[in-house]
């Protein structure tokens, strides 16, 4: 085993099905070493689906990463793939150099690994170019997923390969430990391993089409968080794609005592407890005490807010102390829907919605933070940015809230989404406008998504916030 891995710059040239060599070869960068240029024919097009920034402009982290390594065809040594190579010897067609490439675009929700066979007979006009064909490609459109506790999760995985037998393996890994969640033997047509709650969506494609081998997990819990590896076995070939599943659960915030009555001039103590959340790190806001002068007495307001866009939750608790006669405290929550609260209790000024694009990846939801200052253009820009789309396309879309019983609510450009949204649903869709619908006014089309409010943040792992008042 080598003591270290040497990395060298390489260039990947993608072509469709080749009907002959091109008349002119592309100009190659002069600083590349000989043999570091790979001219790839991708008949099924799995490598061509890697999304690239439009117009050649890209933000940090948007460009896909690419890695190419040497590959050795060999038979698989797992029981569910043993039937793929009954003769126990390699055919002559496996001779010659092989490579495997991995292209990952996490910011665009796509990743693909492809086994490449070099074409010794097809000679390039430039000796430094290696010509190869993608034989097996394994891809995923959900390389990174987030889920609440108890939800069902679909881990997307598919592959393209010549017609023939195959086997599928889904393996789970977390902090050095791992296990096989599901293993399917395509030769015998049965599953060797299938954990409870794991279901394989097997849909074989025709020649040159995709084969779907996605995995569904029912009612996920904390034990499901980790890395899932989808491996496809062909006779003497295999490739895999890794997917990350993260579990998030918003916290419960309780006040003790609740209700709290305070006699005039008497001291009082309020405890704010954050519990029942995952992961264990939360981002919260310091409690803020505001004093308001009122006739005939003093009024104090205690505000405790927890708001996290990344972990998909937003909660707040308020307590109102009123001088004079005994009066109970009020307590409200802003998750998952606008709550009922005592008259005069201030609402939360941030909320998390789930938004998807009515495009090719229309089933993928992203968590979006909406504040009390956000109008329709600002929310549209946030959705576009989360889904990796160009912000300049904002005037071409309209924001629609998906309501129960198939109903919808379309927001005009001047609507304040925080106050105009229906409290019965947090699901939204960004839909292209029809030909007769007016675009956003130029002043309303944002250049970039901006949060309209910022909060002083502290780190905590579950705490009680107590404060003596008066």
Task: List strands and helices in order, with pairings.
Blueprint: E1 11-15, E2 37-41, E3 65-71, E4 98-105, E5 110-118, E6 129-140, E7 144-147, E8 153-155, E9 158-160, E10 167-174, E11 177-185, E12 190-194, E13 198-203, E14 211-217, E15 226-234, E16 237-247, E17 252-256, E18 268-275, E19 282-285, E20 288-294, E21 297-308, E22 313-322, E23 350-357, E24 366-371, H1 376-386, E25 397-402, E26 408-410, H2 417-420, E27 427-432, E28 457-460, E29 464-469
Parallel strand pairs: 1-2, 2-6, 7-16, 23-27
Antiparallel strand pairs: 3-4, 4-5, 5-6, 6-9, 8-14, 9-14, 10-11, 10-15, 11-12, 13-14, 15-16, 17-18, 18-29, 19-28, 20-21, 21-22, 23-24, 25-26, 25-27
Describe it.
The chain is mainly beta. It has helices at residues 376-386, 417-420; strands at 11-15, 37-41, 65-71, 98-105, 110-118, 129-140, 144-147, 153-155, 158-160, 167-174, 177-185, 190-194, 198-203, 211-217, 226-234, 237-247, 252-256, 268-275, 282-285, 288-294, 297-308, 313-322, 350-357, 366-371, 397-402, 408-410, 427-432, 457-460, 464-469. The strands form 6 sheets. Strands 1, 2, 3, 4, 5, 6, 8, 9, 13 and 14 form a 10-stranded mixed sheet that branches. It has a 6-stranded mixed sheet with strand order 7-16-15-10-11-12, with no helix packed on it. The chain has a 5-stranded mixed sheet with strand order 24-23-27-25-26, with helices on one face. 32% of the residues are buried.
């Amino acid at each position: 085993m080598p003591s270290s891995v040497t990395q060298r710059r390489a260039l990947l040239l993608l072509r469709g099905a080749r009907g002959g060599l091109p008349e002119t070869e592309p100009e190659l960068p002069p600083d590349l070493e000989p043999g570091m240029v790979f001219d790839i024919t991708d008949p099924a097009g799995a490598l061509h689906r890697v999304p690239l920034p439009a117009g050649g402009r890209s933000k940090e982290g948007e460009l896909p990463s690419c890695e190419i390594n040497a590959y050795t065809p060999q038979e698989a040594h797992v029981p569910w793939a043993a039937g793929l190579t009954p003769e126990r010897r390699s055919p002559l067609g496996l001779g010659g150099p092989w490579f495997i490439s991995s292209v990952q675009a996490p910011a665009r929700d796509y990743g693909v690994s492809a086994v490449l066979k070099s074409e010794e007979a097809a000679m390039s006009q430039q000796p430094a170019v290696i010509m190869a064909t993608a034989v097996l490609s394994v891809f995923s459109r959900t390389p990174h997923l987030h889920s609440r506790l108890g939800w069902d999760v679909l881990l997307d995985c598919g592959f393209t390969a010549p017609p023939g037998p195959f086997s599928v393996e889904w393996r789970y890994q977390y902090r050095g430990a791992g296990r096989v969640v599901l293993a399917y033997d395509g030769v015998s047509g049965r599953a060797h391993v299938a954990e409870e709650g794991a279901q394989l969506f097997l849909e074989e494609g025709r020649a040159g089409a995709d084969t779907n081998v996605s995995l569904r997990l029912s009612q996920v819990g904390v034990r499901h968080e980790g890395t899932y590896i989808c491996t496809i076995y062909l006779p003497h070939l295999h490739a895999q794609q890794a997917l990350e599943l993260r579990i998030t659960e918003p916290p419960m915030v309780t006040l003790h005592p609740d209700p709290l009555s305070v006699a005039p001039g008497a001291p009082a103590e309020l405890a704010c407890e954050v519990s029942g959340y995952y992961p264990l790190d939360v981002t919260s806001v310091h409690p803020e005490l505001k004093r308001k002068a009122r006739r005939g007495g003093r009024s104090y307001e205690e505000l405790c807010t927890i708001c996290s866009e990344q972990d998909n939750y937003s909660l707040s608790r308020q307590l109102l102390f009123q001088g004079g006669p005994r009066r109970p405290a009020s307590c409200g929550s802003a998750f998952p829907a606008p709550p009922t609260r005592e008259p005069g209790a201030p609402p939360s000024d941030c909320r998390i919605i789930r938004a998807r694009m009515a495009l090719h990846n229309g089933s993928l939801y992203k968590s979006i933070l909406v504040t009390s200052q956000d109008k329709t253009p600002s929310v549209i820009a946030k959705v576009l940015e989360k889904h990796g789309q160009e912000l300049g396309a904002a005037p071409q879309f309209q924001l629609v809230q998906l309501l129960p019983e198939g109903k919808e609510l379309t927001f005009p450009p001047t609507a304040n989404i925080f106050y105009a949204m229906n409290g019965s649903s947090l699901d939204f869709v960004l839909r292209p406008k029809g030909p007769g619908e007016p675009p956003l006014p130029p002043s309303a089309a944002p250049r970039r998504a901006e949060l309209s409010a910022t909060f002083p943040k502290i780190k905590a792992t579950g705490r009680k916030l107590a404060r003596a008042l008066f």
